[in-house]
Write a structure and sequence with these properties.
Blueprint: H1 12-34, H2 38-57, H3 62-87, H4 101-123
Helix pairs in contact: 1-2, 1-3, 2-3, 2-4, 3-4
Length: 127
């Protein structure tokens, strides 16, 4: 059976896309949906939660998983705030005031989710 790659074994451009560009773009979609549809906002945010745990599964050290979660969460939150500001719509879902606090909440949340993913990896059969 072939083992999967860890995040550290992937080429740098792939790492940048997975931990940086992907979360930023997904955050942008969430930020746009924040002013369009509450259900869409929460549905796509849920995908981000799954992605945060999945990102942590790709790491073999606690520190690396936490760092990835921090970066990805920060960029996800930045994408939300930037896209919502660009759209200029009112906020339809529950969100902090000022909205920029979402960056902090996403950074902390991303870190926690990645750490959960790391711990799930440790509990798995190849832990």
């Amino acid at each position: 059976m072939q083992r999967g790659y860890t995040f550290g074994e992937l080429p740098r451009p792939v790492q940048v896309q997975l931990a940086g560009i992907g979360p930023l773009l997904l955050g942008g979609v969430v930020g746009f949906l924040l002013g369009e549809t509450t259900a869409g906002y929460w549905a796509v945010t849920g995908l981000g939660l799954i992605g945060g745990i999945g990102g942590g599964l790709e790491h073999v050290t606690l520190r690396a998983a936490g760092a990835r979660g921090l970066v990805a969460g920060t960029l996800f939150g930045t994408g939300i705030v930037a896209a919502h500001a660009a759209a200029g719509d009112r906020v339809l879902a529950t969100a902090p005031k000022p909205l920029a606090l979402l960056i902090l909440f996403s950074a902390v949340g991303g870190t926690v989710l990645a750490l959960i993913g790391f711990w799930l990896r440790r509990l798995g059969p190849t832990g």
